[in-house]
Amino acid sequence: MSTPAIVVRDLVRAYGSVRAVDGLSFTVDEGEIFALLGPNGAGKTTTVEILEGYRDRDGGEVSVLGFDPATGGTAYRERIGIVLQSAGFEEEFTVRELVRLQVSLYPRRHDPDELIDLVELGDKRNVRVKALSGGQRRRLDLALGLAGAPGLLFLDEPTTGFDPAARRRAWVLIERLRGLGTTILLTTHYLEEAQRLADRVAVLVAGRLVALSSPEGLRAEGRLPTVISFELPAGATLGGLPALTGPPEAEAGGRTVRVRTHSPLADTGRLTAWALDAGLDLPDLAVEPPTLEDAYLALTGEADDGG
Ligand SMILES: Nc1ncnc2c1ncn2[C@@H]1O[C@H](COP(=O)(O)OP(=O)(O)OP(=O)(O)O)[C@@H](O)[C@H]1O
């Protein structure tokens, strides 16, 4: 087993009477994409800033790439990459000038042009920063965060504000970084992003860890039901449906029926057999297993009961 890239033990950080981080422990393996999730105010930014060396801690142990970030100084900062949400850019610089400048600050460097190609800004190389779109700027953020060829990258909500196509392209790029062996600590509010990218996910609530698992593990541990839904066929009533393990619920005022079940195969079989026997269709029949978002909402107590 390789040495973990990040070790956090019993980390505590308080602001007055608020314990923003309240006894947090986890490790991140080398080469892993590790996502920190949690509602607003859960302590993600505080944790990440402590790991980056930009915030003091009140208690606990932290080791990142073998350094204590609190005392690692420049030697430590040169080893990590940080992609901030909105770095203040020199608007008059071109993309190439800015990336070259950033690269020159580090002893271990990427080739500026390769970096620009990696983030797919090759055709914007000589364009001034002020003329970039929001999504292109975020890709430039990423190039700047990678300037020192870091072994560890902190990615703070990397796709906030991206359109869906740009988000998917960013995911491919992040996966490419993983392929290069970069360890990534990711914070995000997009559960689909965590599901797609993260090897493991930590869920924080009020400064404490409430779950730590692979996205699949988290879904499975939630023991949430699969939802079968369909339109009630014309002439059929809720009471006329076959016996199912989960009671069918009709949407208020509509004809959509939902069955929450832990035996989706058996219940779907009963429903379709019943419909076929009766010569009925089940319009919009769908069988949806719980998503990471469902598991997350249940864990953080944020599930909305409205269905
Ligand atoms: N500089 C500060 N002074 C006082 N309280 C702070 C400070 N920074 C954060 N806090 C408090 O610490 C708690 C955790 O904040 P933090 O920013 O770490 O949460 P977060 O999980 O990153 O939230 P978000 O998803 O909104 O970014 C919150 O209650 C917040 O109000």
Automatic annotation (TrEMBL):
InterPro entries: AAA+_ATPase, ABC_transporter-like_ATP-bd, ABC_transporter-like_CS, ABC_transporter_ATP-binding, P-loop_NTPase. Its main location: membrane. This is ABC-2 type transport system ATP-binding protein. SUPFAM superfamilies: P-loop containing nucleoside triphosphate hydrolases. It is found in: Cell membrane. Residues 6-231 form the ABC transporter domain. Transmembrane segments: none annotated. One of its GO terms (cellular component) is plasma membrane. PANTHER family: ABC TRANSPORTER ATP-BINDING PROTEIN, ABC TRANSPORTER ATP-BINDING PROTEIN NATA. GO terms for biological process: response to antibiotic. It comes from Pseudosporangium ferrugineum. Keywords: Antibiotic resistance, ATP-binding, Cell membrane, Membrane, Nucleotide-binding, Translocase, Transport. It is a peripheral membrane protein. Pfam families: ABC_tran. Belongs to the ABC transporter superfamily. It comes from the Bacteria. One of its GO terms (molecular function) is ATP binding.
